[in-house]
Amino acid sequence: MPTVEPPSAERKSAISQALSEVGAAVRRSQHKDGAFAEARLVAVSKYKPASDILAAYDAGQRHFGENYVQELCDKAAVLPADIEWHFIGRLQSNKCKALAAIPNLWAVETIESAEKAHKLNAAWHGACNQRPLNVFVQVNTSGEANKGGIEPHQVEDVVQDILNSCPALHLQGLMTIGSIAGSQQRPNPDFCTLAELRNGLRQKIGVELELSMGMSDDFEHALELGATSVRVGSRIFGTRPQKESIAPAAP
């Protein structure tokens, strides 16, 4: 089995310090009146070497987010089994079986149709996993064509379908990737839209859902607006390298 080259002492210290600062910001900014006691920090490790993830793990971080299925599979195979992985990239139906083969996959945050939910449900069930897989419905709150997710008016139908027809999945919440323009506004309109959708579903069908929103540049504001999970990459790991520059795990 491949092994992970340990991080340098300098790199380990830098990541530990960054995690401490981001964690303090999360605790300081999170909305205090929600149903969830503590916001979740997901460290986005896209394109980062396994040694960086190990450094964050050694500093106490457990939730990590990846955008590409193969990269996630490769990292999950060599990193500690108690890491709780989040898939946060565009979900392709033909990748559901590969995701379902990762036993410590904690969540898929990018469900954008009932069809893909059914594919993932079948794959997770077929892999004989002993617990339901957490999923988030991704909502395109900005209306941008290049953003993934369903339109706000479609959310209730997809939510109901998952609740009624996908027993291998646990509906954890709603997720959005806000627009760049929206991130400059206060309050952020994308975050407000997601919170309003969550509140409407709570009133209409009695389901309590998390809000996954906010990244490195705006996670503190997202928390103020009710985020229960934030996805932070560059504030922890620094600027991402190009994919081809990542060194593979040692044999």
TrEMBL record:
Its cofactor is pyridoxal 5'-phosphate. Keywords: Pyridoxal phosphate. One of its GO terms (molecular function) is pyridoxal phosphate binding. Pfam families: Ala_racemase_N (PF01168). It comes from the Eukaryota. Transmembrane segments: none annotated. Residues 38-241 form the Alanine racemase N-terminal domain. The keyword Cytoplasm does not apply. The modification N6-(pyridoxal phosphate)lysine is found at K46. The keyword Secreted does not apply. Coiled coil: none annotated. Belongs to the pyridoxal phosphate-binding protein YggS/PROSC family. Pyridoxal 5'-phosphate (PLP)-binding protein, which may be involved in intracellular homeostatic regulation of pyridoxal 5'-phosphate (PLP), the active form of vitamin B6. HAMAP family: PLP_homeostasis. This is Pyridoxal phosphate homeostasis protein. It comes from Coemansia guatemalensis.
